[in-house]
Amino acid sequence: MTRTTIDQPEMRIDPFTYAHWYALGRKEDFPEGCALNTRLLSHSIGIRRDTDIMSITGPQGRALPIQHRYGHVWTSLSDSPRPLFDIPEFAEPGRRLVTVGGVRVRCSGLRAVENFLDMAHFPFVHTDILGVTEHAEVKKYDVKMDVEKDEIWATQCQFFQPVAAAASVAGDMVHYQYRVPHPHSVILYKSCPVDPDAWDLIGLFIQPLEEEECLVHSFLLVFDDNNTDTALLHFQQNIFLQDRVILENQVPARLPLDPRQETPTRADASSIAYRRWLKRNGVTWSTTRGAEIA
Amino acid sequence: MISSNAPCLVLVAQKWSDMKLYDYVLSGNCYKVRLLLHFLDIKCTLEPVDFYPGRAHKSPSFRRINPLEQLPVLELDDGKTRICDSQAILIYLAHKFDPSRHWFPVNEPEKLGCVVQWLTFANCITAASSRARLHDMLGYTCDITAARAHAHRAFRHLEDHLCHQEFNGINWLAGAQPTLADVACFPYTCLAGDGGIDIFIYPAIQRWLRRFATLPRFHPMPGINIR
Ligand SMILES: N[C@@H](CCC(=O)N[C@@H](CS)C(=O)NCC(=O)O)C(=O)O
Ligand SMILES: [Fe+2]
Fold first, then answer.
1. Which chain B residues are closer than 8 Å to A215 by Cβ?
2. Count of domains in chain B?
3. Which domains does chain A have, with CATH numbers?
4. Do A237 and B26 lie within an 8 Å CB cutoff?
5. Nearest to A102 among B24, B139, B223 (CB)
6. 8 A C-beta contact, residue A187 and residue A179
7. In sequence order, which residues have a C-beta less than 8 Å from that of residue B63 and are 6 or more positions away?
8. Interval A45-100: pLDDT, tens
9. CATH no. for residue B45?
10. Which pLDDT does position B8 carry in this prediction?
């Protein structure tokens, strides 16, 4: 559990992990006049905001790139980062964005993504909200790669839920899709309780602090005229904090990419695809392979 | 265990009230009030407050509700009277809605003294365990080493007392039945792990937490990890 505060050589981070943009928080988290320090991929970085101008500095005082998107402030350690993935739903009228705030978890950020993809835990971790033990079965679903965008999609997912969303009035079969466009970000599309033709979005933008510690920034982007933002916030925080206990107790804290290290069941098709995709892209940081190399 | 049912059995039908609880879903102090409301089968309107990340409890409008900028706050059915401090709220609810006087034994002075002693001690647990939790979970700044050390000091005291009680065949903090003392001390003891405090090293505390979690009508909150 000892935390390395000395900056490790940037060489230790695999190029795929290094090349991405990462969310550091919501703009409101950095009020005027603030000067804060945080961590990103085991590097200390500083965030300042004078009036409306924000600046981010990385290792050796190097200025890092910055962009404001999806209600969050993003940066990258790379001078030529891969473009940040597009979420077209953010431009759709009538949706409400609720940013949930960062929650620190002592585990690999990759573990947090994988847990988010796994429907099998609903009845046991989110009992009587996202699942009931009498309907614990995960039905077969499709997993495919979008080769052009280099992202994973799991579609045709269904699950019986007693209280699928803050706006739900009764239990129902809920439809899901999952999208993994980034090693540390994941979005789920969930059938909307107030409009059967629409999808509500819930997503995690994970800031990897250390290999075994992450800050999970999450959001909801929903059609819902009945609940206040605060009610939606409480709903989501309640769910995520149920996950946090589970995540902090997973062993090992880093994600194993070797299929022999953990035996996934049928329901884990998306988890297998995720681990393969990370492996294919040469990800070692925050995985058990990273620990072997170190 | 039968006797511990008694306080709930006195009130059979669920009571609606016009009270309002200013509530935060991740707060252990709000949770203890929600737990007692549920034990006593009282319905109460919950007013969710954006404690994190919005810090709404620090806003001018909330300061009019509680100048101490803290949750929980119970607003009574007159729409005016407000009770702050979770222990004070527990006492109000028990006194008002539990005619059996099991939860708050006002007719047994000795026992009452013990209960109030542990109600006060609950604030010591909160001060240390909750601070460590806010640091680890939500990134609040504090001296984390000191917070954890204070928490362990409080838990050692709780462990000693529970061992002593067990030795005398007593299952609860202030007697043979659960009281407000147990309700008040339970949340931040059980949530200590969220703040990186190992609570599994205290065997008598573990047994007490497990007994508490099997009380009729008990429901957990996120972060509670009972093995
Ligand atoms: N003694 C009070 C403590 C309440 C307390 O610390 N509440 C926390 C939330 S669990 C809070 O509002 N903290 C904000 C602050 O103290 O600034 C009680 O038991 O209700
Ligand atoms: Fe979950």
1. 139
2. 2
3. 12-75 (2.20.25.680), 88-293 (3.90.380.10)
4. yes
5. B139
6. yes
7. B69
8. 999 999 888 999 999 999 999 999 999 999 999 999 999 999 999 999 999 999 99
9. 3.40.30.10
10. 30
In a domain, B1, yes or no: no
| Residue owning the nearest CA to atom 14 of ligand 1 | B70
Q: Which atom of ligand 1 is nearest to the CA of B29?
A: 10
Instruction: State the DSSP string of B117-169.
Output: HHHHHHHHHIIIIIHHHHHHHH---S-HHHHHHHHHHHHHHHHHHHHHHHHTT
Residue B144 covered by a domain = yes
* Residue B122, domain extent: 109-213
Ion ligand 2 contact residues with beta carbon within 5 A: A 243
pLDDT over 60 (residue A266): no
User: Model's pTM, two decimal places?
Assistant: 0.92
Rg (CA), chain A: 19
Q: What is the pLDDT of residue B55?
A: 97
pLDDT value of position B71 = 98
Verify that B87 and B114 share a domain, yes or no.
no
pLDDT for A167:
75
Nearest-neighbour CA in chain A from B87: distance (Å): 23
User: Are A244 and B223 within 8 A, CB to CB?
Assistant: yes
CATH code where residue B117 lies: 1.20.1050.10
